Amino acid sequence: MIKDANLKSQDYLANLSKDIPAGLVVFLVALPLCLGISLASGAPLFSGIVTGVVGGVLVTWLSGSQLGVSGPAAGLTVIVLNGIETLGSYEAFLLAVVLAGFLQLILGFLKAGVIGLYFPSSVIRGMLAAIGLILILKQIPHFLGADEDFFGEMQFFQPDGRNTFSELGHAFSVIEVGALLVGVISLVIMLVWDTPVIKRIKIFKLVPSALVAVLSAIGINSLFKSFFPELAINSTHLVNLPVLDGLSSLSNELRFLTLEPLTNPSLYVVAFTIAIVASLETLLSVEAVDKLDPHKRRTPTNRELKAQGIGNMVSGLLGGLPMTAVIVRGSTNVASGAQTKVSAFTHGVLLAVSVLLFAKFMNQIPLSALAAVLLIVGYKLTKPALYKAQMKLGFEQFFPFIITILAILFTDLLVGICVGLAVGIFFILKANYKSPYFYEKEALPGKDLIRIKLSEHVSFLNKASIALTLDHLPRNSHVIIDAESSEYIDYDVLEAIHEFKKTAHERNINVELLNVPEVDVLEMH
C-alpha cells in the first residue's frame, strides 16, 4: 500500500512488477510520439527522442509526481516550428529552450505553481474526457493505415489541411487492409489478455498486453511480407527511428546550441512563450494525472516547475525539443497500472536503449498496433459512466465539463481549457466572495485541536487556500471542519475536504466533519 508521495526505496522495489510493465507500455506509445512531434516541429528527428530520454531519466526523479511522464508535447509543435523560423536555425532555437527552462526554474522558486490549484474539477475532468475522445478520433486513421499526419497530432485543424472529422472520412475511403488487420488483431489480443480469466495466470499478469500485441503485430506483418506482399504495411505506417551505426553517427544526429542570437530580441520572446505555455500545460497535466491516481497523491506544483525547468535546460543543451508533463503519456501510465515513478524512468531508459541498440527492430512496429493501444487508453479516459456521473453533480458542474470537451475537441488543449475556465468563472461571479473559513488552534495534551469554521459562501476560488491549509495541517492532530454557517460550498471544495478526510489517517490526523455535505468523489480509472 502506497501511503505517501515521497516514497522510500523499498516502496519502489515492492512495485517493480507493476511499474516495469507499465513503463514498457508508455515507451511503446512515447516512441512514435517523440518522432512524430520532431517531424511536425521541423526539428531533427532525433531531437524528440533526446527530450523523451531527458524527461524519463532525469525529470522523473526531480519531479514530485509519482505517475507523471515528461517529454515533447504536441501542443508545442506550432511554437517550435515558428520559433525555428523566427530565429533562423534549430541551433539558435535551442538557446531559447535553455532560457525557457531557466524562466520555469524562476517561476518554481516564485511559487507560481499554485495556479494549478485554481483549475476546477469539472474542467480537468472535461480535459481528460476530451483527450480520450481525441485519442480515439485521431488514432482511427492510423488504425486503418490511412493517415499521413504525424502520430500524436492532436489539433482539430491538421497539417494536411483536413480536420479531425474530415480525416476520418478520408481514412475510410483509403483503408490499408494489412494495417487494419494488424490493428484489429492487436486490439483483440489486448482485450482478451486483460480479462480476469487470463490475469489469473501469474505469468500473463506480469507481461503487458500491449507488448504481446506489438510483438504479434511485427510477426503478422513479417508473414504478410513473405506470403501476402499485397497486405504488407507501407513503411510510412511503421515506426521510423534513425538507425545509428556507432558513436560517430550519434554525434552526427545531435545538434548543439549557438550563442549568436543572444543580441536578438526575438530570442527572448520565443523563450518566454515556451516557458509560459509549457508551464501551463505541465500544471494541467499533473493536476489531471493526480485525479487519475488511485492513491490520490498530490504533486507539489512548484517542485514540478523547477523539475521541468531543469529538464528543458538539459534538453536544450543536448539538442532536444522543449518538454512538458504530457497527459497522453501520463494517462497511459496510470491505465497500465503504474504505481511509482519507476515506470516513467523505465520508459526513458527504454527510449535510450531502443535508439542506441534496437532501432532496426523498432522500425518494424506497425503504427496501427500502437494506435490500438491508444484506442484503449482513450476509451478509459472518456467512458460513458464519466458523463453520467458528472451529470448527476448538477448543471453547474456538467455545463463547464461539456463545454471544455467541445472547446478542446474543436481547437486545442490550452484554448479549450481557457474556454472551460471562463464558463466556470461565469457561475462563480454570481456568488458573494467572503473569507472562506475561520481557523482556530488549541494545544491539548498529546495533540493539537484545530477547528476550521467555513464561511457562509465558499466558492472554487477558495479551493487553493483551503487545500493548502489541509495539506499543511500538523501530524497527530484532531481537526474539526465545521460548515454550520455555510449556505453554499462549491463541489471542488467539498471534494478536497472529503479526499483529505479519506487520506488523513496516513498522517495520524483525526478528522471530524460537522454539517459538511456528502458528495460523490468521482474516481478516474
From TrEMBL:
Pfam families xrefs: Sulfate_transp
Upper lineage: Bacteria, Pseudomonadati, Bacteroidota, Cytophagia, Cytophagales
Cross-referenced InterPro entries: SLC26A/SulP_dom, SLC26A/SulP_fam, STAS_dom, STAS_dom_sf
Domain named STAS: residues: 439-525
GO biological process entries: transmembrane transport
Subcellular location: Membrane
Protein name: SulP family inorganic anion transporter
Keywords on record: Membrane, Transmembrane, Transmembrane helix
Species whose genome carries this gene: Pontibacter arcticus
Membrane topology: Multi-pass membrane protein
Membrane-spanning parts: 20-39, 45-62, 90-110, 117-137, 171-193, 205-224, 267-289, 310-330, 365-381, 401-429
